[in-house]
Every structure is written in structure tokens, then in C-alpha cells.
Amino acid sequence: MGVVVAMTFLMSCDEDRNEPGWSYFNDMEHSQAYETWSENPNMPEGKTMTGPVEGTVATHEYAFNFEKTPEDELKAATLANPLADDFDMDRAKQKYDQYCLMCHGENGDGQGHLFTSKKYPIPPSNYHDERAMNKTDGQLFHNIRAGFGVMGAHGPQLSVEDTWQLVNYIRHLQEEGVPESETPEPEEESESAE
């Protein structure tokens, strides 16, 4: 046994560090595998690259078959919020601060930094206006994932669960309302000269 160990150490030592040494099992080094797009007589379709087995579901993807259109937003209205009773406030606020705060503002009133600093001229949606309040959870989910108006799609950046948590957070903001001190004062009409 000692001879085998000694031989292993002696054969693995080499003065030239650029040489890989001796190869005992070179079937791993020189693979016999078929190339991805090559013909393969062992496969039923005769090619190496085959599609997934019928009925396969991707583990980290969501079949969201809606486009950024008003018609698809109405179709999405029927989606039920699976996390309506499982609101993770900390996670939802973290995602809101990361993706929504800069445009929609801390309270969802559309007074985010990008708009109030005049860096972005188009006012973002105010979650407290009648239009937003009347949207279903499915429509809000659609707006976040596919985009709405000039807002881009956030579907590629957010998981399905995080998107539903954002819907829950928007509902939370709507329930809280806009604090009195942050409600914009209505502009007084100037008296016209008669």
C-alpha cells in the first residue's frame, strides 16, 4: 500500500508546471458525447437537441400570456391574488422601494423623486385616484408585469410571488391613504376682472 501511495506522489510531481501530467482515464478529458446540434442515431428524432418532454413546466418561470394592451389588461382582471391573505409587508416594501418608489412616491401618490425633480415630465399613476382604486388585483398584477402607459414591464425583474406582494403593498397604501400634510393643496382660482 505504501508503494502505491509513494508512486502516486512521485508521478504527480513534475518540474514543468505547464504540463498536465499523465492521464489515466482520458475518457473524461476526450468526451465521446454528441455535439448539441449534431445528428444522433440514438435519438428518436435523429438529432441530439430535442425539445422538453410534453407537459414539462419550467420551475422558475410563469406562463404570463398577456401583452401590454388594454384588452389583455381586461383579461388579466380575472386573475385571483393567491397571496391576498399572505401579505409579507417587509418583502413587499423592499420591492416597492426598489422598483416603484422613485416614480410613484413613498405613499403611492405619483410624487416620486423622478417626477418631483422634473427629471421625468410625465406624471406616474397615483394609486389613490379612482381609476387605480377600481382596478382588480389581476389588473394591477398585469400592469406591474407587462407595463402600463409609459411604464415598462417589471415582469423580467420580479418573481410572480414578489409581483403579488407588490399588489398587496399597493392595496395597503390605498387603505392608508395619503397623509394630510402631503396632500397637494388645490390651486386657488384667480378672480377674473369683470
TrEMBL record:
Domain of life per record: Bacteria
Residue span, Cytochrome c domain: 87-174
SUPFAM superfamilies the record matches: Cytochrome c
Signal peptide: none
GO molecular function: electron transfer activity; heme binding; metal ion binding
UniProt keyword terms in alphabetical order: Heme, Iron, Metal-binding
Region (Disordered) residue spans: 175-194
Short name of one Pfam family: Cytochrome_CBB3
Comp. bias regions, Acidic residues: 177-194
Listed InterPro entries: Cyt_c-like_dom (IPR009056), Cyt_c-like_dom_sf (IPR036909)
Name the UniProt record assigns to this protein: Quinol:cytochrome c oxidoreductase monoheme cytochrome subunit
